Amino acid sequence: MRIDVITIFPDYLNPLREALLGKAIQRERIAVGVHDLRNWTHDVHRAVDDSPYGGGPGMVMKPDVWGEALDEICGDGTGQVPRLVVPTPAGRPFTQRTAVRWSQEPWLVFACGRYEGIDQRVITDAARRMPVEEVSIGDYVLVGGEVAALTMIEAVVRLLPGVLGNPASAEQDSFSDGLLEGPCYTRPEVWRDQPVPEVLRSGNHAAIARWRRDQSLERTWRRRPELIEALPEGTLDARDREV
Length: 243
Ligand code: ADE
Known about the structure:
Elements: E1 2-7, H1 19-26, E2 31-36, E3 49-50, E4 60-61, H2 63-74, E5 83-93, H3 96-102, E6 107-111, H4 120-126, E7 132-136, H5 146-157, H6 168-171, E8 190-191, E9 194-195, H7 205-223, H8 225-229, H9 238-242
Parallel strand pairs: 1-2, 1-6, 5-6, 5-7
Antiparallel strand pairs: 3-4, 8-9
The structure holds adenine.
Residues 87-89, 136-138, 140-142, 145, 148 line the site of adenine.
């Protein structure tokens, strides 16, 4: 998978080179390009923003600079086009489902806005040539799209084949079955007066699976009841309903 990020703060994306993502780059599972939006400015001040039409606080990112940057980065000469992702608190929610869908794509481009946002005509124009999604990572406001892009890239890249050491980890994630994951334990058997739950030391695999499912249901019910309501019909068996 190829991933490009356009930003006025390229260093903000340095964590892409660390840990799991860094390894994915080294192993050539992903190729990452981070581009400084100011490279597409033509004035001495290298301005990327201007005051909003209609008045109001803040500044809006200029369409001409973004337009040229996207023309260059999203046209690789082969006719292939990327999926363009625009992080914004005004976007559709980014979820695990989105991450799974994007993990099938050959090429993603993230357009990170700052200030009040990017002139809407940039998004409309890009959508004439490529699929575009405006997405939010949650109901809070960050100062820009960079941290949101990092978050989404990490969620997508860990799903790619050969990136996680143990592919079963991704299959057992919170959300992969619509529920939160339950608690987990490692040695020692007793720590600060707290023993590891007996069943996990029993070696009874069926009992362990049932216990984990119960924990998962109970935690989801307490912390995120709306996820239980959203489960597709028939997901819960008779035993689940007793929890
Ligand atoms: N930019 C600022 N806040 C954001 C959010 N919550 N999600 C995505 N991009 C953002």
